[in-house]
Amino acid sequence: MATPLSADKLVKALKDEGVKIVEHRSWRTHNRNGAGAWGPVHGVMIHHTVTSGTSGSVDLCYEGHSTLPGPLCHGVIAKDGTVYLVGNGRANHAGSGDGDVLQAVIDERPLPADNQANTDGNARFYGFECVNLGDNKDPWPAAQVEAIVRASAAICRAHGWGKKGDTSVIGHLEWQPGKVDPRGPGVSMGDIRKRVSERLKHPADWSPGGSNPPHEEDDVPKRTLYGTTGDFTQTLKPGTWTTVRFDRRHNGKEWETKAPEPSIAFGACFYSTTVAVRASGLSRGQELQIRVAHYAENKEGGFERTGGMPINSPVHDGGDAHFTYAWNGHLAGSRRLRVELAQHGNEPITIEYLRAETLYWET
Questions:
Q1: Which among 197, 186, 215, 180 is positioned nearest to 44, based on CA atoms?
Q2: What's the whole-model pTM score?
Q3: Closest C-alpha to 243, from 171, 294, 282
Q4: Any idea where the N-acetylmuramoyl-L-alanine amidase domain is (predicted)?
Q5: CA 310/CA 335 separation, integer angstroms
Q6: Do 304 and 335 touch, CB atoms closer than 8 A?
Q7: Structural domains present in the chain
């Protein structure tokens, strides 16, 4: 049985974990306790707002709307990683969900499929809404995802959760049938749980690599921009991953042609990267798979692959075959970030255009 944290204890837990917070209006007394129970609590639930812009999203989550009064969560996590506290107590965020999922959260064991809506989640979960359109295209910046990890870890640490497993943090899509949040390039509940679990092995002020990821207003990121010229095309053979190259770079003022180069970011840094691809030769309904991968320097002075990030598999639906991919992460040491593409059709296809823009914060 876990008694919900008081406002003061929640603020302290978040600050101790390195979370930047803003106390919004009368959040300390703003709740839906008159509509139902608040507690005992058992976990943290992550959502996306289906909105853009910090101010409007925070106001919406505080006020609610005509069919669902606020607060709609306990905290709103902005793109820059700031957490705006908007409620303290029961909040209209989780709705009814699967009781078997709740029991798995309590037991800290793998989650079953959510196929029922028979349990009041608003009484049992802290909720964080994250500013994102939820269209599976709007990227999740590294600072925002890190804030999700830290805010979730703060609450787990305060309650002593996570000692048997790591499933005290779930997504709305894992709780209520039909929900899809959180989704989009750069966010994964499996990755979030893994990182929360790792944080809980260390003191609250621990930072991977010894450095806190910055907030946008505190530390302006640097930028790299790579592309390809019109006459530089690359062929993707069926059934194999190909590391693509870029033959031009923007120097901040203009494009420069260069020898083809595969790397688009260089460690050590936190990064947020977006890749655009235009291809020809795809049949309608055929997938083009995109991912980024980390490469580390080897003893011979070259670079070898150390791991790939999750794959995005957009489908060609006719017209120009133009695709995008986004990912946020951290490069350690002298590692490099490269783009890999694959297709599994019957014939080779041609990559006619590439562009990769990366914002990065050195660590």
A1: 197
A2: 0.62
A3: 294
A4: 27-183
A5: 18
A6: no
A7: 7-210 (3.40.80.10), 222-362 (2.60.120.760)
DSSP secondary structure, 327-352, as one string: EEEEE-TT-EEEEEEEB-SSS-EEEE
DSSP 3-state of 48: strand
Amino acid code (one letter) for 209: G
Nearest 5°: the CA angle 313, 316, 322 is 85
Chain mean position to CA 172: 14
Q: Which of 161, 98, 178, 99 is nearest to 126 (CA)?
A: 161
Q: Minimal CA–CA distance to 129: which of 63, 40, 185?
A: 63
The set of residues, in sequence order, having a beta carbon less than 8 Å from that of 42 and lying 6+ positions away, is: 2, 102, 105, 106, 124, 125, 161, 168
Residue 71: asked if its preceding bond is cis (omega within 30°), the reply is: yes
Per-residue pLDDT, 332: 84
At residue 341, the pLDDT reads: 97
Lowest mean pLDDT among 78-87, 116-125, 158-167, 178-187: 158-167
Collapsed DSSP state (helix, strand, coil) of residue 120: strand
What pLDDT band is residue 216 in, cutting at 50, 70 and 90? very low
DSSP state of 179: -
Structure tokens at 4: 């919900």
Select from 318, 349, 323, 328 the least CA-distant residue to 270. 328
Closest CA relative to residue 157, chosen from 194, 188, 202, 124: 202
Neighbour tally for 110: CB within 10 Å: 9
SS3 145: helix
Lowest mean pLDDT among 18-32, 166-180, 219-233, 269-283: 219-233
For residues 270-303, one letter each, b for 16 or more C-beta atoms within 10 angstroms of the residue's C-beta and e for the rest, the string is bbbbbbbbebebbeeebbbbbbbbbbbeeeeeeb
